[in-house]
Amino acid sequence: MGREIAPIVCKITDDERGLKEFESKVHASGKENDIMLQFPTVYIHNWKDKEDFEVYIGESNNIIQRTKQHYSNQADPDKWQYQLTTHNSTLYIIGHEHFNKSLTLDIENRLMLYMMSVDHVRKIHNLRGNPQNKYYPANELDSIFRKVWKKLRKYNKELFPVESEIKDSAVFKASPLHKLTQEQENIKEIIIQKIFDSLYTGKKNQLIFVEGEAGTGKTVLNSSTFYEIFIRAEEKAEKGDNSIHCCMMVNHDEQITIYTQIVQKLGLTEKYNAVVCKPTTFINKHTKTDRVNVAFIDEAHLLLTQGKQSYRGENQLQDIIDRADVTVAMFDENQVLTTDQYWESDILEKFKEQARKSNNLFELTNQLRMRAPEDIIDWIDNFTKNQQINQIPNNQGKYELRIFKNPEALELAIKDKAADDNHKLSRLIATYDWAYNNKDTKKRISKYWEVSIGKWHKPWNRELKKAPELKKDKALKSLSWAEQPQTIDEVGSTFTIQGFDLNYAGVILGPSVKYRNGKVVFDPSEKNYKRMTQNRTLSNGKKMKFGETLTKHEVRVLMTRGVEGLYIYACDKELRDALITAYRREKI
C-alpha cells in the first residue's frame, strides 16, 4: 500500500498583510510551496457576526491572485467582501498534492453542503456548486475530505463540528447542495427547461407532477430545482431578462422550519424574494391575477382536498395551479394520512393526466434513504402493502431489522444507539393510537399526553418542550423534532417525523395494527385521531371512511424512517408472536 498523503490546511488573517505573510512563509517551505502556490487549492473566507458565522467557499488555480481579486471588492457594501473589512475575518487555505480542477470543485461543493448545515453558520455567500462526474482521482474524494475536515476542526470546532452531527441535521438532508443521482439530475434538467419554456411562451397553469415513494429523494430534488431556478433566473436577469418569483410550500410545520432555514442561509429571501409558506397561506395571499411564476410543493400528498378551518376551497392543488404559471408537485399517494387529504382516484388521475399530456409526469424509483438490501425493502413492502409477514432476512448488510418482546427493551435499544454520536438521531415513534389533544388538556390523566403500554409510558411528541426551562430555549425552535435532545424521552408520530430521517427507528405498532388469520390487519377503531377515522364526503355526495387505508399508510411512513435500522414492538399479542416467529433469533 502507498503512503497516506495528508492535506495541508493553513489558517491566516484575512487581509493583505495576512496574505503576504502566508506567501512568504510558503515560498520558503520547499514542497509546500508547490502544493499551495502551484497546484489548485480550496479556500474558506469566514467571519463571525455576533453568535454566528458567514462564509464564502471557493477554489482557485492561483490562490494569491484570487484572494487579491476578492480584496479589490471590499469597498462595495453590496458585496460579501465588504464584510471582511468590518469583522475579524480569517481565511483557510487547503492544498493537497493530488488536487486537480475536478477534485477541488468537489471538495468545494462538499464544504458548501456541510457548512450550510452547521448550526452556527448563518449564511453562505456562494451561488450554486459545480459537482463533477468521473475523473481521476475521484475515488480519493471521501478520504481526502475527511482528512481536510479533521484538520479544520483543530482550528475551530464551532465552525467545523463532527461530521455525524452535520449529516444527522434536517437541513443537511433537505439541502439543495447535494450531488444528485443521475435519475434526479435528468428529471431536474427537464423540469427547469419546461419551467423556462412555459415562462417565455406565456403558458399559464402548467403542472409538473413527480411521483416517488418514501426515501426516493423527492425533497432533495425539489429543493435543488427550487434553488437552481433562482440562480439561472439571476443569470438571465443580468442579460436583461425579467426576474422570477417562486414560492416553496409544504403542509408540514417541521418542514416549513427547515425550508425557512435553507432559504435564509443561502440568502434567497433577501436577494431573490424567495418565499416559504404553507399552502393555505399561499392561496389566501394570491389570486388568479396576482400570481407567481413557479410554485414548488413538497409532500403534495399532504395538500387538503376539502375545506378545513382557514381553507375554504375544495382542492389545494387546483387552487395553487390557478395561482401560478408553473406548479411543481412532489407526490406519494402512500403517505396520505388524513381524510381531508384523501385523494379520490379519478380526481388524482385527472391531475396526472393533465401533467402526462404535456410530458410533465415523472417518477423517482431509486431508494436513497434506507441502507437496506432489497430483501429487507421487500419485507417492509409485504408488511405494509400486502399485509403479509414473511421470514425476516438473516443477512441484512449495513441495515438492522429487529423485533422486541416488550417496549422497555425497545426503548433501551434505541437509547443505546442514540448514545453513540454516529447514531444519535435514533428515536421511538408510534402509530396514533393514544390520546393527544393539545387544546383540551383537561382530559389528560397525567402530566403529559402519553403513549402507555402496561406499566411502561412515555410522553407524546412535543410534550416535554412545554416544560418552563425548554419553552425559553430559542435554539430548539430551529430544530426538527428528532434533533431536539429531550425527544429521546418522547414518542414521535407521523406528524413530527414524516419527511425526515432517523438513524434507527424504534417503531411501536399500537393496537390498530393486528394479526388475524395469517394476515396483518389495520383496525381504525383503535385510532385516537379523528382526522384519520371520520367520514369523508366524496365528490358524488357519498360519505365513506378510509381509516384502514390511512392506517396502512401511517405504518409505512413509520417503517421507512430509519436509515440504518428498524426496531419493532407490536402491542397486539398475535402480531408480536408472528413477528418473533419471523425473526427467529435466539435472543430478542
Automatic annotation (TrEMBL):
InterPro entries: P-loop_NTPase, SLFN_3-like_DNA/RNA_helicase
Domain Schlafen group 3-like DNA/RNA helicase, first and last residues per copy: 206-572
Listed CDD domains: GIY-YIG_COG3410
Entry coiled-coil feature ranges: none
UniProt-listed Pfam families: SLFN-g3_helicase
Protein name, per record: DUF2075 domain-containing protein
Organism of derivation: Blautia liquoris
